[in-house]
Amino acid sequence: MAKPRVKVPKSATAGEVVTIKTLIDHKMDSGQRKDKAGNLIPRKIINSFSASFNGEEVINVKLEPAISTNPYFQFSFKVPETGDLAFKWVDDDGTITETKKTITVK
Amino acid sequence: MKLTRRNALVFGGAAIAVTLVPVNATFAATDLTLADIAAFTGGADVAEGGIELTTPEIAENGNTVPIAFSAPGAKRVLILADGNPSPGVATFSFSELAMAEGSTRIRLATTQDVIAVAEMTDGTYTKVSKSVKVTIGGCGG
Q1: Quick check: B92 contacting A, CB < 8 Å?
Q2: Closest-CA distance of chain A to residue B78, Å
Q3: Closest CA relative to residue B120, chosen from B100, B138, B134
Q4: Which of A10, A24, B106, B119 is the most buried (most CB within 10 A)?
Q5: Residue A22 forms beta bridges with which residues?
Q6: Cα–Cα distance between B14 and B20 in angstroms, integer?
Q7: How many C-beta atoms lie closer than 10 Å to residue A66's C-beta?
Q8: Cα–Cα distance between A41 and A44 in angstroms, integer?
Q9: Contacts of B36 in chain A (CB under 8 A)
Q10: What is the separation, in whole angstroms, between the first and last Cα of chain A?
């Protein structure tokens, strides 16, 4: 399904605070809208977004239908060491989308 | 201080400035919003302030309204949109690695208050609200 896009710096100094931007393509059907025939389109959103660094959770967001189409998140965290920042999005239907970026500490 | 013409003008100007600045307008939230806040805090007292919530004053398109917050010392932040059919927007949880800040894009059905409630690492709660004028709503079809 949805293709995620993440912007993560390739390198950082130890303890540096880096800003991460993420975006994923998703319609985020809120369950409030109607189609052309007037039928309610059932809710289908990404309900959870999280990022972890070397297996330790950094941020976790619970999403409601009031998050816009193609959910965008920006956050920042302190890089302790070289490692992988893993992102995970969970759809209402259980589909999980994951991606990973490596940050090297110089 | 003598009441000269100059002083009178200064006072007049200050009085107008005070009335123009919306001092974090009185907090009148809907029952649904209050219920969501109570569910988040577990009924604890909620202080005011301590969170920097950035919203546009006027959002032309309610389908995608950029918001940002910074709540130093918070471990969880709840974002609510008071005038939406369902006020919940998102709940952010931060680990010790993360800065207690974030930004995203949200849907607003109509002109309303956006509220951020933060749970601090010491277990206290605080909130702020910001009014956003919406030209085209982002919920109906």
Answers
A1: yes
A2: 9
A3: B100
A4: B106
A5: A6, A73
A6: 10
A7: 27
A8: 9
A9: none
A10: 35
- CA dihedral of B51, B55, B57, B61, whole degrees rounded to 10: -160
The CA R_g of chain B, rounded to the nearest whole Å, is: 18
| Residue A74 touches partner B, C-beta closer than 8 Å | yes
What is the amino acid identity at position B32?
Answer: L
Q: Which helix (H) or strand (E) holds B33?
A: helix B31-41
Instruction: Tell me if chain A has a CB within 8 Å of the CB of B76.
Output: no
Q: How far is A1 from chain B (nearest CA, A)?
A: 21
What pTM was computed for the model?
0.84
What value of ipTM does the predicted structure carry? 0.93
Residue B118 CA: distances (Å) to CA of B18, B23, B24, B82, B102: 28, 20, 17, 16, 12
Hey, what amino acid is at B119? Answer: E
The DSSP H or E segment spanning B47 is strand B46-48
B99 → closest Cβ in A61, A76, A80: A76
